[in-house]
Amino acid sequence: MDSGSIDKNSPVPYYYQLEQLLREKIENGRLKPADALPSEAELCSTFIVSRTVVRQALNKLCQDGIVYKEKGKGTFVAKPKLQEKFIQRTYGFYQEMRERGLEVESKVLEHELLESPAGIRTLLKLSEGQKVVRTSRLRSVNKELVMFTTTYVRSDLCPGLEKEDLTNHSLYQLLWDKYGLKISYGHRTLEAVAASKYEADMLKVPRRSPLVYLESVSYLENDTPIEYFEAWHRGDKCKFAIELVPAEEMKRRKPPHRENSTFWSGIPSKQAVSFSDRTDK
């Protein structure tokens, strides 16, 4: 492994310098996903540092998801995390990934018409007895399972939606093509959570693994709420980029609909779980 060097006269800690050297080799492609890093002993010899320094550097890279360790085998370069923008365009996850040249696959777990649960009625401003289409899907990008989603869509605005195939199609594109409904804007919250047994089983990760939990309500141009969804993203596969915009632009954006809505005071996770008829936590 062609290496840089540790500046022994620098006040910057040795482990940080080593971490940056290794990170640079990974980011510039000299070390590729699944490539093995040199052993701890080799790194000690190459950079003339102690094993403690090497372990500190490798542990930090592991924490950041840049590398991963396999017991008895060594340390390997991890695949880059899927990046999503927190300020997203309104055409949805499927189209965003496809536009970036990524292969998106969905496995539909449930797709049915049902009476809207109480919490969903509040968020979508429905009356008791009105129905929604609930769709739960496992989403994969480039053959990597990255998230589990459950979506509730108002059935009064898109009759027959429960009969449509959403295996490998965009929900938002279907709403536009068939029903003439265009998502205009939405409001989302993001939360770090630990995987319950149910979510761990769905996403094939150990229980209590870190997940990014996202909730969203989407609106039409006339301010009618049409969709509520919740998504659990694997923390080891995804990261979110938060986009900053000028204050003047934010003032022009539509404000959150806070009246008569529990969503903007934060729906507790247990309540969100009840929307999906789950009790295991």
Automatic annotation (TrEMBL):
Coiled coil segments of this chain: none
Domain HTH gntR-type: 12-80
Pfam family, one: GntR
Signal sequence segment: none
InterPro entries recorded: Bact_HTH_transcr_reg, Chorismate_lyase_/UTRA_dom_sf, Tscrpt_reg_HTH_GntR, UTRA, WH-like_DNA-bd_sf, WH_DNA-bd_sf
Keyword set, alphabetical order: DNA-binding, Transcription, Transcription regulation
Statement: the UniProt record of this protein carries the keyword Transcription: yes
Biological process according to GO: negative regulation of DNA-templated transcription
Protein name according to UniProt: HTH gntR-type domain-containing protein
Natural source organism: marine sediment metagenome
